[in-house]
Amino acid sequence: MFKLQELIRRNTDRLAMSITTEQGKTLKDAQGDVFRGLEVVEHACGMATLQMGEYVPNVSSGIDTYSMREPLGVCAGICPFNFPAMIPLWMFPIAITCGNTFVLKPSEKDPGASIMLAELAMEAGLPDGVLNIVHGTSDIVNAICDDDNIRAISFVGSNTAGMHIYGRASAKGKRVQSNMGAKNHGVVLPDANLDATLNALVAAGFGAAGQRCMALSTVVFVGGSKSWEDKLVDRAKALKVTAGTEPEADLGPVISKQAKERICRLIQTGVESGARLLLDGRNIMVPGYEHGNFIGPTILSGVTADMECYKEEIFGPVLICMEADSLEEAIQIVNKNKYGNGASIFTSSGAAARKFQTEIEAGQVGINVPIPVPLPFFSFTGSKASFAGDLNFYGKAGVNFYTQIKTVTQQWKDLPSGSGVSLAMPTSQKLT
Prior knowledge:
The protein is α/β, with parallel strands linked by helices. Helices cover 36% and strands 21% of the residues.
C-alpha cells in the first residue's frame, strides 16, 4: 500500500486526464477525485492497528478468551460514473489490506481510471489474482450478486440499482454496503457570513456539474437570508461552462445525453409546478462543443416539498431554493426528506449549530462546511434512503465490513479425573 500510494501520487495528472476525457469533469476536480481516493490508500497503510483483536486471560480459572479479525475471502465492488478514481479507492485498498481478494466492476461509462489503478497496484507488487477487474452492465452485476464465492459487495450509485443489489445479494447471504441517492440541504441563517456562505453554496451546488452524491443541491433560506438569492444568482452566472480540459472551466458536461434530458425534464417540472426559474442553464451553447451534454448553472426558487424537482435527486447543476420562517421549520423540512446523506448549516451562532447537529437526521453534518465528507479515519456515514446496510465505507466501519470476528476460548489447567460427566451448562461460576 505504501508503494501504491506513491505511484498514485506520481500519476495523479495522468489519472485526472483519463477521468476528464471519459467523464467530463474539470481537470482540477478530477485531481481532487484522485486525491480523495489517495487519502483512503494512505489510511489503509496503517490498517493493521484497526484489525487488532482482544484478549482476556483467566476469564475463569485457567481459561483464556481472545478474539481476532479474519478476512471474508472474495469481496466485490460496483462503482458509479461520477468518481472513477475515488470510489474504487474507497473499496479495494481497505478490502485487500484486510486480507481479501477483490473483484471490481467500474462504471461502463468511464472504466479507464479503474484499469489504470489496477495497473499501478500490480506495479506496486500486488500478487496476481488479488485485484480483478470485470466489465459489463446489469448481467455482470447480477452475476456478482449471485456468485457463491463472493462474500461481500460494496456499491455506490442510484437508489434503483442500490436496492436491487442489496436485496438480491442479501438474499444470498452476502454482506452489502450500498451508498445511494441524496438530497443534501444547506440551511442558511441570517447571521451567517454572507460572502463565505454564497461561495460555499455555489461551489457545493455546481461543482462537478452537480454530479456528486454529496452535492449541496437544496438551500433552505431562513428568515431574512432569503434576500441573498439575487447575489447567489450573480455568482452562479459568473461560472464558466466548457470542456473539462479547458483551463478556465468551472463546469464540464454531464455524463450523457440521457442524463441531460432527465435533468432538463426535472427543471421543467419545477417551473410547471410554480417554482421561479431565476437562472436557466438548459440552452447553453459552448463554442466548439455545440453537441456536448452541457447544462449551465440553474437556480429554482420558491420550491416546495411536494414538487418532483425536490423529491427526486436531479444529479445535475441545479440549485433548489426553499424558504423557512425559523430554524425549527428548516430542520423539519430536512428531516421529512427521505434521503439522509448530508446536511449543512451556515450560521455564526453556536447554539443554533448545536441544535442543528443534534436534531438533524442525516449521516454527515456540516457546520459552515458545505460538503462534510469526513477524512478516511472516520467513516462515510450516509443514512435513511441514502444507505442500505449495517457497516459504512472506510474507517473502522470499513474494516469491520471486510472482516469477521473469530473468538477462541482455551483451557490449560490440570483437570480432576474420575469426577464423571456433567451435562449442565458450563459457567464461570461454581453452582451450589
